[in-house]
Every structure is written in structure tokens, then in C-alpha cells.
Amino acid sequence: MTTLKPGSVIGILGGGQLGRMLAMAAARFSYKVIIFDPDASAPAAQAANEHINAGYDDKAALETFARRCDVVTYEFENVPVAAAKVIEAVTPVFPKPNALEAAQDRVAEKNFMNSIGVETAPFSAVESLQDLNDGLAAFGGSGVLKTRRFGYDGKGQAVLKNASSAEAAKAFADLGGAGLILEGFIPFEAEISVIAARGQDGATRCYDPARNVHRDGILASSTLPSGLPPETETAAKDAAAAILAALDYTGVIGVEFFVLPGGKLLVNEIAPRVHNSGHWTEAACLISQFEQHIRAICGLPLGDPARHSDCLMENLIGFDVTRAGALAAEAGVYLHLYGKAEPRAGRKMGHFTRITRRPSDQNSP
Ligand code: AMP
């Protein structure tokens, strides 16, 4: 394990808000950051030392970037694997590109989970309308049809509940007519996620599971504690640790679960990066998920993931951001804005974490 010295350069593929928050954590450890993103107005570039504004298929730009960085990481899971491999030939990439391969295709992702004994929703690959109809019949007439690749924030999916054959055919066509997956519809009681980290030495640390609420397929809020029994929380952390070990992973991962009535857990998906449902860690833990990721990829010891407070994190989506002034005036609120110029429907503009209970409140109702 090599520990990067202060002043070393971290490269980040992707320049969204996650890259921005990683860059801020890196600065606190005296590391420099270069963002690689094809978008000239990438929010992360405002908080980094430099921005290479080039495409993920620009081999020469990727090689130049790689030569200038002591380590490279990524902040979104749809980084082309080929781009990560071009960089890996020059400088270390963490998490290693096998994590991208496992997370980019929902079928490969579920096969991987099941191969290591981690349960998922039942699923079948859909390449034809016949496959879809067979799958629906197998899952009792209902399911969630999704694109295998490039889906995010609920985009690229359709819920089919006792759908007519015309509705099924329309959803199939709307989603592109191939490269799809049908998942059984899961009547979950709760959705939780575990943010976990693994160091280059194999040490693993998990944050407490957050209970998540999605609206229109986009994360709306994360609440800690989850309110679930300790054995369910432990099982979720154990599953996250097993995934990290199986991938020989370095860095922070987000693992999303469905919790069934009775407590059984199914993994919905993994994100090989820092995760929106871990933003609360910057306010309710001494070591945030962003710092933890920087520690892992730079070969520093992992930090203590203990939570010092209960909290509620809410995303500010679109025009929710107009609440920022009022939130800034509230005691116990930690506000984070992403530097995006224009609010638009569905666009993540910021988030805040409200501390709801501190250890000193223990005896209060
Ligand atoms: P995803 O993009 O796969 O994370 O899906 C976004 C949201 O849609 C999830 O957080 C769930 O709320 C819901 N969802 C996704 N897949 C299923 C499923 N198989 N059964 C029930 N709800 C689902």
C-alpha cells in the first residue's frame, strides 16, 4: 500500500456534484485535484485545481490526464470501461475497473450478486417481446422493465402491474426494444442503503444504513437511524462487506437494498462511488463518505464511520433550491449547494442535513 503524500494529484473522471464534494475533501488533505469531464461547466471544476475538458473517448487526453495524476478515481458509474483501462495502463485507478463492469449492466450486476450469495429481485434478460411476456408470466403478471445500461434516477424504467399486452408492448418499444431486464415487482416495506468503504489493505468500514425515500425514481430523503431491527442493519452491512471483498474493491461504494416485510433483504443496485444516500455523513459523522473515499484511494487509514447524531438528509431538486436561504437560517441544518447555474425540474441542485438528535438529547423525548 502506497500512501500518497500531501501535494499529490488525484484525478476524478466526472465533474458533477459528487466530484465536487470529493475535490473539497481532497483539498482538506492537501491533495490537488484534476477533473476530467466533457462538460465545460462541470460543477466539480469550480472546486478543483484544474479541469481537462475532453471526451471519454479522447485517448490522447486520457493519457495526458493519467500521466499527471498519482491516482485516478471516478464519480459516476457510466464511465466507459475502455477509458478507465487507458488510464489504468499509466496510473492506478481505484476502484478498479472490474467494479464498473459489475455495476454498468443490471444483468451482470445481479448475476454477480447471486454468485456470491447476495440475493436480488428475480429477473430475466429481455431481448424480445416474447421474453417480456414470458418474464411477466413467470413473475405473476407484474414487474419493472428497465434498460440494462445507463439508467439512473428512475430513468429508463417502466412499472408493469397486471399490464395488458398492449401496455407491455408500448413499454418495451419506449425503452428501446432490446437490451432490457425485467425484474419482479418487489412489495418492499422500506428501502435502505449502506455506504461502505474498503482500504487498499482490505480493511472495511460501513456507515449505518440510511432509510431512503424516492420520489419519481429520484432520492428524496435519507433518515438515520433507519428504524429497522439491529439484525437487519447488520445483515445489510455484512452484504456490503461481502460485495467489497468479492470485487477486491478500493474506495467507497453505495449498496441499495429493498427490505421485505419480515426483514429479508434484496440488493437493488450498487454504485461504485460515493452516493447521494451518504450525503448525511458530512453532517452526522466525523469522517464523511467523501473523506473516506479520498483516504481509501490515497492509501491512508480509513476513518471511523461512527454516527454522532441522528439526522434527516433531503435533496434540493429543481426549484426546491429556493429554500436555501431559509434553511441557512435554521439551527442544526448543514446546507450544501452544488454551484449549478440553472434550476430545472429533476435537477439535483443541493441538499441539506438536519440534525434531529444528538447524544446529549438522549434523555429528551
Ligand atoms: P433504480 O433506478 O433501479 O434504483 O430504481 C429506482 C426506484 O424505483 C427504486 O429506488 C425503487 O423505489 C423503485 N424500484 C426499482 N426496481 C423495483 C422493483 N423491482 N420493485 C419495486 N420497486 C422498484
User: Major sheet, described briefly?
Assistant: 9 strands, antiparallel
Question: Which percent bin holds the helix content?
Answer: 25-40%
- Number of beta-strand segments: 17
Distance between the termini: 47 Å
Alpha-beta classification = alpha+beta
Overview of this structure, please?
By secondary structure, the chain is an alpha+beta fold. Helices cover 28% and strands 27% of the residues. Strand 11 and strand 12 form a beta hairpin. Helix 4 packs across helix 5. The N and C termini lie far apart (47 Å). Strands 9, 10, 11, 12, 13, 14, 15, 16 and 17 form a nine-stranded antiparallel β-sheet that branches. A four-stranded parallel β-sheet has the order 3-2-1-4, with helices on both faces. A four-stranded antiparallel β-sheet has the order 5-8-6-7, sandwiched between helices. The protein contains eleven helices and 17 strands.
Outline the secondary-structure elements:
Layout: E1 9-13, H1 17-28, E2 32-36, E3 50-52, H2 59-68, E4 71-74, H3 81-88, H4 97-104, H5 106-115, E5 123-126, H6 129-138, E6 142-147, E7 157-161, H7 165-174, E8 180-183, E9 190-198, E10 204-206, E11 210-215, E12 218-224, H8 230-246, E13 251-259, E14 265-271, H9 281-284, H10 289-297, E15 310-317, H11 324-328, E16 333-337, E17 348-357
Parallel strand pairs: 1-2, 1-4, 2-3
Antiparallel strand pairs: 5-8, 6-7, 6-8, 9-10, 9-11, 9-13, 11-12, 12-15, 13-14, 15-17, 16-17
Helix pairs in contact: 1-10, 2-3, 3-4, 4-5
